[in-house]
Design brief:
Layout (H helix, E strand, L loop, with lengths): L6 H8 L24 H11 L1 E7 L2 H18 L2 E7 L1 H13 L9 E2 L3 H10 L25 E2 L2 E2 L28 H10 L13 H5 L1
Parallel strand pairs: 1-2, 1-3
Antiparallel strand pairs: 4-5
Helix pairs in contact: 1-3
Organism: Thermodesulfobium narugense
Protein name: Extracellular solute-binding protein
Pfam family, one: SBP_bac_8
Length: 212
């Protein structure tokens, strides 16, 4: 695909919410093998190309967040971002269709996605198998170095840059639920005993539902 190098650069903006939280070691994890370009080299190569096409999905607040990052990125690096906001499934199908058609040059430099479609894309051979999560300088500050190699327990080989780390929490009304479930089995029993009283995010529409 066109501009494989420039995808390194835009990712640094997405790491802001995860990095600088703690200094952690990657001891015990297998990093990239062999020589890889330095960050400065990547930036210079990206500037030569001049622009990056970034495909992303999410809720309206995600788009607002991305829109706020792009001007800062463009000002810092002098690289224009062509931002396409839409449907992750459509993005994946576009990649697969281009591959099936024998197209070797496309317009998708970076795709903001999650674990399952990433795994599908990886297995289909449409992901650049390059450990860029080890190239971005502040990736080393991610609180859990495990995230450099896995997402949702799916191995990424460093080709998936961590951008968010959510945790599942349960909200309930203490006035109405005196004895909340303490285990998964307890929760399932409570759900069956209280039809229509429990809800969670659609896994196809949000990450918290998928994690749940």
């Amino acid at each position: 695909m066109k501009g494989k190098v420039v995808i390194f650069v835009v990712l640094i903006a997405l790491l802001v919410s995860l990095t600088a939280l703690a200094d952690t070691s990657t001891t015990g994890l297998t990093g990239p093998q062999g020589p890889i370009p330095s960050w400065d080299t990547v930036v210079q190569m990206a500037k030569q190309e001049g622009s990056v096409s970034w495909y992303a999905y999410g809720a309206e607040y995600d788009k607002l967040y991305f829109d706020s990052l792009i001007p800062k990125f463009e000002k810092q690096y002098g690289i224009k971002v062509n931002f396409i906001f839409g449907d992750w499934y459509a993005f994946l199908q576009k990649l697969l269709a281009e591959q099936k058609a024998g197209q070797t040059v496309g317009d998708m430099d970076l795709v903001f996605t999650w674990s399952i479609p990433f795994n599908d894309a990886w297995n289909a051979g449409v992901v650049w198998k390059y450990p860029w999560s080890y190239v971005i300088p502040n990736a080393r500050n991610i609180v859990d170095p495990y995230l450099l190699q896995y997402t949702d327990m799916i191995p990424t080989n460093g080709a998936f840059v961590p951008f968010i780390w959510w945790q599942v929490a349960f909200l309930y009304n203490k006035q109405m639920v005196k004895n909340p479930p303490q285990s998964w089995d307890d929760l399932m029993a409570w759900v069956k005993a209280n039809p229509g009283k429990f809800t969670y995010c659609d896994p196809n529409a949000g990450g918290s539902g998928h994690t749940f």
